[in-house]
Amino acid sequence: MKLPIIAYGDSVLRKKGTEITKDYPELNNLIENMFETMYGAHGVGLAAPQVGLSIRLFVVDATSFAEDEPALKDFKKTFINAKIIEESGNKWSFNEGCLSIPDIREDIDRHESLTISYYDENWNHYEETYKGLAARIIQHEYDHIEGKLFVDKLSPLRKAMLNNKLSSISKGIVKVEYKMKFPALKKGRR
């Protein structure tokens, strides 16, 4: 089932997610719905706060980048209770977007490598190192479970220049091809 994606401006996107346990209600169903939602919106990652849940869960599927990075051919993963242990390497810039912030793309600097500890959907524990686009996608989604957004990494001037667009998104004044929930509309304001 496709879930509505929470738009910029909603407080759930600013909360640090809480850890979950194996008995989290309907967890497998939630993970399946998150993948379906992500695919329906043509994304490569989706975090639980983006569907209104302040928990430490995100999903990624970077197979669409396999042409650029062959190692991503089967890169589809679920990250539960993730904790970045280390970010390393040079920072590099890449044009990022976010399903919660449609129609805005910006060049964002991130470390080229990271080591992360997490559980998969079967509660197997991993500590792995990722590089390149895989690392970038994971860092972007990890930021979501930490209550951070990619626009937070912009200079104050650049963010100020985007303020009207960001405000419009929170009010639902944006065209998207997927279901969204807008904070200003939720409160009955426009």
Protein model, in words:
The protein is α+β, with helices and mostly antiparallel strands. The protein is 25% helix and 32% strand. It contains 4 helices and 7 strands, in the order βαβββββααβα. Strands 2-3-4-5-6 form a 5-stranded antiparallel sheet, sandwiched between helices. A two-stranded parallel sheet has the order 1-7. The radius of gyration is 16 Å and the shape is globular. The two termini are 28 Å apart. The mean pLDDT is 95.
Structure characteristics:
alpha+beta, two-stranded parallel sheet, 190 residues
How is this structure best summarized?
The protein has four helices and seven strands. By secondary structure, it is an alpha+beta fold. The strands form two sheets. It has a five-stranded antiparallel β-sheet with strand order 2-3-4-5-6, with helices on both faces. A two-stranded parallel ribbon has the order 1-7.
